[in-house]
């Protein structure tokens, strides 16, 4: 049994998708980020950084893992799924996983902050992060022109990690017009049952987009 500590964010959804894809039993612990539950001592004992997601593997001496990329690697190694054994293919998966961790996630996250949540509009910051988001999508589009998935012919944790971020491109204000291979990949993954369940685990807030944005604005400016 895996205890999953998470919230309705792209980083959280990565792990929900992976657990579904890998067929692992898990229990969801939904943290209220607006109430700062992720900063409470009980959770900091699991993840000292105070961010979701994190897991506890009850079948491995209650071993705790934090950081979404590290969790994906841990679960792939635990199950022997979605991470090749061949050293070169394995490296390719990890390269694209790090591409998401170091590029797509941070840039899209900042695009969200400045485009949606920051209390004042700073056009230069908005343009910077949206343009970088688009550039990263163009890199992916080029890769997907010759490959079905990010790391080659097989669906892997690199795809699970990246898809939850790319699917919210409109919310971030990043246009994908003309990126036909990226769009094909987005649509294909959207049909996977595990992806469909994963982006509803935990379910999105019942707040309207405007109400949700206002709550996040307050959190950003604390």
Q: How would you describe this structure to a colleague?
A:
- The structure is a single chain.
- The chain has 222 residues and is an alpha+beta fold.
- Helices cover 57% and strands 8% of the residues.
- The protein is built from 10 helices and 4 strands.
- It has a 4-stranded mixed beta sheet, with helices on one face.
- A hairpin with a 5-residue loop joins strand 3 and strand 4.
- Helix 1 runs antiparallel to helix 6 and helix 5 crosses helix 8.
- It is globular and about 50 Å long.
- The relative contact order is 0.15.
- The mean pLDDT is 93.
Labels describing this entry:
single chain, alpha+beta, 4-stranded mixed beta sheet, 222 residues
Describe the structure in brief.
The protein has 222 residues and is of the alpha+beta class. It is built from 10 helices and 4 strands, in the order βαβαββαααααααα.
Give the low-confidence spans: none
The beta-strand count equals: 4
Strand sequence of the main sheet, in spatial order?
A: 2-1-3-4
How large, in whole angstroms, is the Cα Rg? 17 Å
Find the structural class using helix and strand composition.
Answer: alpha+beta
- What is the average per-residue confidence, as pLDDT, rounded to a whole number? 93
What percent of the residues sit in helical stretches (DSSP H or I)?
A: 55-70%
Strand content: 5-15%
Q: What characterizes the major β-sheet?
A: 4 strands, mixed
Order of helices and strands: EHEHEEHHHHHHHH
- Approximate shape: globular
What is the number of helical segments per DSSP (H or I, 4+ residues)?
10
Roughly how many Å apart are the termini? 36 Å
């Amino acid at each position: 049994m895996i205890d999953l500590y998470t919230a309705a964010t792209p980083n959280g959804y990565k792990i929900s998708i992976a657990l579904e894809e890998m067929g692992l039993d898990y229990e969801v612990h939904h943290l209220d980020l607006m109430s700062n539950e992720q900063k409470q001592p009980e959770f900091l004992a699991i993840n000292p950084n105070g961010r979701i997601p994190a897991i506890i593997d009850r079948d491995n001496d209650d071993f705790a893992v934090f950081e979404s990329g590290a969790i994906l690697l841990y679960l792939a190694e635990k199950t022997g799924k979605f991470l090749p054994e061949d050293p070169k293919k394995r490296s390719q998966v990890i390269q694209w996983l790090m591409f998401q961790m170091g590029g797509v996630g941070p840039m899209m996250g900042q695009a969200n902050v400045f485009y949606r949540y920051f209390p004042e509009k700073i056009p230069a910051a908005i343009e910077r992060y949206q343009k970088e988001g688009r550039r990263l999508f163009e890199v992916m589009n080029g890769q997907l022109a010759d490959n079905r998935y990010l790391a080659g012919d097989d669906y892997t944790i690199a795809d699970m990690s990246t898809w939850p971020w790319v699917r919210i491109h409109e919310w971030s204000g990043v246009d994908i017009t003309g990126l036909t291979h990226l769009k094909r990949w987005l649509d294909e993954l959207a049909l996977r049952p595990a992806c469909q369940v994963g982006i509803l685990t935990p379910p999105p807030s019942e707040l309207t987009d405007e109400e949700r944005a206002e709550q996040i604005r307050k959190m950003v400016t604390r």
